[in-house]
Amino acid sequence: MKPEFENIPLVKNEEKKRFEIEYNGHFAFIDCKETSQQIALIHTESEPELAGTGAAAAVVEKTLFYIEESGKKLLPFCPYVFAFIRKHPEWKRIVDERFEGYDKI
Questions:
Q1: How many domains would you assign to the chain?
Q2: Measured between alpha carbons, how far is 44 from 60 in angstroms, rounded to an integer?
Q3: From residue 51, how far is each of 17, 61, 68 by CA, in Å?
Q4: Residue 26 lies in domain
Q5: Which domain of life is it from (predicted)?
């Protein structure tokens, strides 16, 4: 994660059902669905003003830390999150082994 994002807090926006960070007045976020044992990450997006800044990667990494701390398992349906985990395989430790694409990570 780029240093400029390290101290930005991750917000769990219950109303919008997403995890988000705000940087310079703009948002990067991940839509999610949560059960008592799993968190499914559905779609990652950042506002156009944040393109190329690393904001999307930062919100993903912060969300993965949140999921790990919660003790829940990850279902990485979002292609961006899936690719992030392939690039950083140490995060496979929080992916639910029953996830259909688990063996492709």
A1: 1
A2: 8
A3: 22, 17, 27
A4: 3-95
A5: Bacteria
